[in-house]
Amino acid sequence: MTLIATFWGTLLDILPIAAIVFGFQYLVIRKPVKRLPQVLMGFFMVWVGLSFFLVGLEQALFPMGELMATQLTNHEFLPILAEGAQRHWSDYYWVYIFAFAIGASTTIAEPSLIAVSLKAGEISGGTIDPLMLRVAVALGMAFGITLGTWRIVMGWPLQWFVFAAYLLVIVQTLRSPRSIIPLAFDSGGVTTSTITVPIIAALGLGLATEIPGRSPVMDGFGMIALACLFPIITVMGYAQIAQWRATRTRSANDLTPM
Amino acid sequence: MDLVVSLAHQFKDSLRDLAPVVLVMAFFQLVVIRQPLPDSLALIDLAFGLVFVLVGLTLFIKGLELGLFPLGENLARAFVKKGSVSWLLMFAFALGLGSTVAEPALIAIAARAAEVVALGGLIDNSVRAQNSFAFALRMVVAASVGVAVVLGVVRIFKGWPLHLMIIAGYMLVLLLTLFAPAEMIGIAYDSGGVTTSTITVPLVTALGVGLASSIKGRSPMLDGFGLIALASVMPIIFVLLFGIIGIHLIPGVVP
C-alpha cells in the first residue's frame, strides 16, 4: 500500500522536471531528442529508484537515526546522576563521539569529494595535497555535526552558531588565495549526500525529542546547516596553511645561499 | 549488457556511500550500546529498508545519467550557442526549479518539517495542512534554487566577484532571521544544505562550467563553480521569507 502511494507521489514529483526539459527541447530548441528510448528508460528508472529510495528511507534510515538518538540519551545508558543533580553536557559524550564518527566516515569516502580533491590538487600545482584536502573536508563536516549535537544538548539558538561561522567564513574569504574560494564553497555542498542528510536530520530530531527541556520544533533542525558551513572554513584554513608553508619554504630557499 | 555492468558499478558506489553509516551504527549497537532492538523495529525490516535504499539510489542515479543529465547538458549547450540571453535565463531558472523539486532528500525533509512545525503549533495540526505546508516548502526551496542559478548565470556574464555576493547573501540571512518565526529558523538554515545533493549539483555545475568555458575571459575553475554556493544561500533567504510572509498566504494552513 505505502509502496503504491509512494510510486504515485514520486510520479508527480518527476513530472515537472520532465515537462520542463522536454518542453524546452521541443518548443524552444525544436530538435528531436537524441537516443529517445534510452532517455525515456532513464526517466523510468529515476521514477522507480526514487520510490524505492523513499520507502527504504522511511523503513530504515530514519528509524535508525532516531533509534541511535534514543538509545544514546537513555538514562540507563548515561552516567549515573547524583541525587538531585543536573545533567552536565559532558554526560552525553557518546552522542558527540557518534556524531563525529558518522560525519567523518561518510565524508572521507564520498566519491564526488575524491574527484573534486584530485582536480584541485592538479590545478594548484602541488601546493594542495588531495588527501589532506579530503581530510580537511571530513574534519569540517564531523566538527559541524558534533557542534550541532552539542548545541541541541545546550539548547542555544542556532543563529549564534551560524552567524559566528559566517563571520569566520567572511574573514577567511578575504584572506584566502582566490582560486580556492569557489572550491571551498562547493565543498560545503558536496558533503551532504542523499544518504547523510536523512540520517543527520533524524539524529537531530531524535536528540531534541529525547533530551529533557528541548523540543524538536526549536532545536531539532540545524545540524545540516552546520555540517555544510564548517567544511568551507576548514578547506580555506587548509589552503591558507598550505600557502603560508609554500611561501615560507620559498623564502627559506631564497635565504640559504646568503 | 552494458547497462547491467554500469548498474552493478553504480550499485557498488551506492554501497560505498551507505557502508560507513551502517558500519558506524553497527559498531555502536554491538560495542557501545549493547541493548536489544525495540520491538517496533525488526532487524529484517531494517535490512529490507537498507536494500530498498541501495536499489533505489542505484536506479535513481543511473536513470539520471541515462535520461536527465544528457538531456540537460545538451539543452544547456544549445542555449549557450543560441545566444539569446533571455531564453538562457529562463532555462536556467527552470533547470534550478525542476531539478530541486524531485530531490529525494528535500522530499523527505519537507515532510519531517511539516510534522514538526504542526507539533509546534505554527500550522494547523491536520494532514491536509501538513501536506500543503510540505508542498509549499518544497516549491519555495525549488524557486529559490531557480533564482540562485539565474543569478549565478548573470554573475558569469558580468564577472561579478562571488564572495561579495555570498557576503551580501549572509547579511540578508542575518537580517531576516531577526523577523522570522523561531520555528522556521532551523528549517530554513537546513534547507540550504538539502538542495545541493544528487540531482542539482551535476546539472547546475554542467551549466556553469559550460557557460564559463564558452565566454571569453572566464575561467571554468573560478566562474564555473560558484553556482552551488549561491544555490545553498538562496534557499535560506527564501524559506525565512516564506516563514515571515508566505505561510500566511496559503489558505487553511495557519490556525
TrEMBL record, chain A:
An example of a Gene Ontology BP annotation on this entry? potassium ion transport
Pfam families the record matches: DUF1538
The reply on keyword Transmembrane helix is: yes
Q: Which InterPro entries match?
A: NaLiK_antip_UmpB, UmpAB
What UniProt keywords apply to this chain's record, in alphabetical order?
Membrane, Transmembrane, Transmembrane helix
**GO terms for MF:** antiporter activity
Q: Which residues cross the membrane?
A: 6-27, 39-57, 93-119, 131-152, 158-175, 187-208, 220-241
Q: Does the keyword Transmembrane apply?
A: yes
Give the top-rank taxon of the lineage listed in the UniProt record for this protein.
Bacteria
Protein name listed in UniProt: DUF1538 domain-containing protein
Automatic annotation (TrEMBL), chain B:
Transmembrane feature ranges = 18-37, 43-64, 85-113, 133-157, 164-182, 194-215, 227-250
List the InterPro entries hit by this protein, alphabetically.
UmpAB
Protein name as catalogued: DUF1538 domain-containing protein
Is the keyword Metal-binding in the record? no
Q: Which UniProt keywords apply?
A: Membrane, Transmembrane, Transmembrane helix
Which residue positions does the secretion signal occupy?
Answer: none
Q: Does the keyword tRNA-binding feature in the UniProt annotation?
A: no
